[in-house]
């Protein structure tokens, strides 16, 4: 390609010189044919001038090619020096040197911004870890620690009491209830300690594992219905954490016996519905549940979706989430209720 360009430039230069000589002869009222046939001296002079002109043009052209090749050979090391943040060797070309300085400044600025972003991410991750540790410590102190302390005090009191067998059985039943509550609170804490991401699994597999574990370690009867195609990883992670949050709230507050999770993908939309048959709550009064609800709403907003909550005291909780997706299997059936 480059050789073709050079040949074109050389040919155009040769044609231009020939054209100028013809015009020069016309201005001097010389006839080209007469010079060719009769005036050999004039013809030799013209030929010499033509060759000299052509040689000068060729030399100028070759000089430019050589300069371009030289700059090209020096440009790569200069770009490599700029990439490494070093002071590059000048190319002795004011325009290129100016462009390279601007490029170096831009790269340096981008590197600084990237480093600042990475530092901010590290600080944010450290902040999240600290907050999570504080939350776990607070939850352990407010729930399990207090419950175990209460059970310990009751058992300690029994050693000094003079209760009959019926009284002791009643106290032990109370201790059993406290320990069962502590065990349930520990399950909730362990649920929050599960990985925030899917660890290479798809959403369906992760939900099956999570719900099977919850059903095994609690009194909940769980139902899972899934009909999905492949989903973007970001949507899968958000949905997984939303289900985790809902289960946590159900175990902590609902006193439910059944929990149902439906996940259905239709054309252009993903529907996630979660239902329990627990105590429900008054949306204007229950502040404890609102924290988990706010987390779910934030995740839904990140996916440009919408969330509908239906609940009332002693009527359970139903959350219906609709998330737009770019593609999906056509399915006209939706989860009703």
Automatic annotation (TrEMBL):
<dbReference type="InterPro" id="IPR050482">
    <property type="entry name" value="Sensor_HK_TwoCompSys"/>
</dbReference>
<dbReference type="InterPro" id="IPR005467">
    <property type="entry name" value="His_kinase_dom"/>
</dbReference>
<dbReference type="InterPro" id="IPR036890">
    <property type="entry name" value="HATPase_C_sf"/>
</dbReference>
<feature type="domain" description="Histidine kinase">
    <location>
        <begin position="241"/>
        <end position="327"/>
    </location>
</feature>
<protein>
    <recommendedName>
        <fullName>histidine kinase</fullName>
        <ecNumber>2.7.13.3</ecNumber>
    </recommendedName>
</protein>
<keyword id="KW-0175">Coiled coil</keyword>
<keyword id="KW-0812">Transmembrane</keyword>
<feature type="transmembrane region" description="Helical">
    <location>
        <begin position="5"/>
        <end position="25"/>
    </location>
</feature>
<keyword id="KW-0808">Transferase</keyword>
<dbReference type="GO" id="GO:0005886">
    <property type="term" value="C:plasma membrane"/>
</dbReference>
<dbReference type="InterPro" id="IPR003594">
    <property type="entry name" value="HATPase_dom"/>
</dbReference>
<keyword id="KW-1003">Cell membrane</keyword>
<keyword id="KW-0418">Kinase</keyword>
<keyword id="KW-1133">Transmembrane helix</keyword>
<keyword id="KW-0472">Membrane</keyword>
<keyword id="KW-0902">Two-component regulatory system</keyword>
<dbReference type="Pfam" id="PF02518">
    <property type="entry name" value="HATPase_c"/>
</dbReference>
<dbReference type="Pfam" id="PF07730">
    <property type="entry name" value="HisKA_3"/>
</dbReference>
<dbReference type="InterPro" id="IPR011712">
    <property type="entry name" value="Sig_transdc_His_kin_sub3_dim/P"/>
</dbReference>
<dbReference type="GO" id="GO:0046983">
    <property type="term" value="F:protein dimerization activity"/>
</dbReference>
<dbReference type="GO" id="GO:0000155">
    <property type="term" value="F:phosphorelay sensor kinase activity"/>
</dbReference>
<feature type="transmembrane region" description="Helical">
    <location>
        <begin position="45"/>
        <end position="66"/>
    </location>
</feature>
<feature type="coiled-coil region">
    <location>
        <begin position="100"/>
        <end position="132"/>
    </location>
</feature>
